[in-house]
Amino acid sequence: MSHIPAGTTADAPWALRVTPELAGWTYAGLRALNLSGETVEFATGSEEMLVLPLSGSCVVECEGERLELHGRPSVFEGVSDFAYVPIEATVRVTGEGRFALPSARATRRLPVRYGPAGKVPVEVRGAGQASRQVNNFCAPDAFECDKLVAVEVLTPEGNWSSYPPHKHDTLGEGEAVLEEIYYFEGGPGYQRVYGSPGRPIDVLAEVGCGDVVLVPHGYHGPSMAAPGYDLYYLNVLAGPAGERSMAFCDDPRHAWIRSSWDGQAVDPRVPMTTAVGSGADGGTSETETQA
């Protein structure tokens, strides 16, 4: 079940529910909520989570804290604020809009926290038709979690991201072991996942709003935005390491692509968004993600 079409894992109140058990792995998960003013209450159990507005706004109540998330009209119209909720907690979310809840099985209990949109590091990666925007809101060096890592990627129509193809499934120098979820909005677009020697996987999926692609191992990329359609994806990653990392290994056949960006102009359409109501993008950051 590498490609999960929108709606196929709905489990009220969740519009999307991908657990580690459903994915067939150990750590990474993702839920989504569609709210029209009602309140949803749930327990986090063994998972640390984020509440991330995809569209609309909400209030998150947990451990006596009340966090107001201003959100955004859509993922293509701004960088959002977000909330962190810990393991073994009861959470109430009240709002109007669509909300993603990336999660990871964790053991360390951290406090409830608010992540302001204006402090989200916004990065432009690649060049030419591989130009894309990465919102590193929960990258290892941007926001503290126990296991969870999450970033957003916006790809202008006709461009490729997650390119060159890369993997993070082997423990070694310069590579971390990570399970990864791609959640898409916009599109249509296309997502490729393929194997390395001895570890086969073969996915080429047409993706659009609400679709998910799971990457248990193997090279993933490119993510292709069809001409005429911008593409958004949320990456959720988690793994066994004690220290969070997004270290990756390029497919050796395509690693030369990276050096081809030298001297190429960056697509002027990126960055596509900034923090809602802000004239600034919250800064730029060089991270070890390949999104």
UniProtKB/TrEMBL annotation:
Q: Recorded GO terms, molecular function?
A: 5-deoxy-D-glucuronate isomerase activity
**Key words, A-Z:** Isomerase
Pfam families associated with the record? KduI (PF04962)
Q: What is its EC number?
A: 5.3.1.30
Question: Which superkingdom, per the lineage?
Answer: Bacteria
Q: What class of enzyme is it?
A: isomerase
Protein name per the record:
5-deoxy-glucuronate isomerase
